[in-house]
# Entry
Amino acid sequence: MTERVARFAPSPSGYLHRGHAYSALTAAGAGDRFIVRIEDIDTARCRREFEAALFEDLAWLGLRWETPVRRQSDHTGDYQAALERLRGAGLVYRCFKTRAELMDESARAPHGPVAPYIGSALPAAEEARRLAAGEPFAWRLSIGAAKARLGAAFDQLDFVEEGGGPNGEHGRLSAAPEAAGDVILARKGLGVAYHLAVVVDDALQGVNLVVRGADLFEAVGVQRLLQTLLDLPAPAYHHHPIRLGPDGKRYAKRDRAETLRALRAGGMTPAALRSELGFPNRASSPAEAKRNAGDP
# Structure
């Protein structure tokens, strides 16, 4: 039987809170192997002090994970190689539109839901002029080119949901990548975006069960498309409910949710937090129990 490899992949842009703890415990209990990955491609916000703190928090929770831990900032070459494959196949194009221009286009669109952005490459001469002028641009994945490359297989892209989407979606589901439009995969001088980095990482690390919050459910479509275009394996997905605080709002770093460090300093025990989050036992699964067998 194939080993289940699950991962917890936080961004070290702040201290962990209850929502992170719930996700980490869910992932640790779901797989035969548990991987922690540091997603720090946003170098402007990520800091090593937060990275060190999150390892302390996970250890305090009683979790064990495989080492060495993959840090995205150490593997930019892998992501650039994937981008070059897509570029070589004519699946991405340079988009020079600014955020202000895109917002203006949305404002001028008919009333109703904002349609996903669909664009195309500029004429060669115009693109060359803008590049020579040093204008910033983003590499966008072309849905049109992807459809042309995959043919009927494009509409057949699907995935297995073992948890539940925002509306209870479960089982084998249509991926529908066109719903996201031509997403940005990289920006000039700023490296690659989340969608591309995460599918490369999951494939290289052998992750076959992606455990994460239901707020990322809509990302599956683009990621399944990228996996197919890059000939990468398709993992199963387990989206879990988003944890809410007493005020009914989701726990979030930007809202300064109470951190695990603060809970620890206030005297809360790992067992008490596990119980509060619905993980009353020391181990969430036989696999976790085996990994933690050597704990004091």
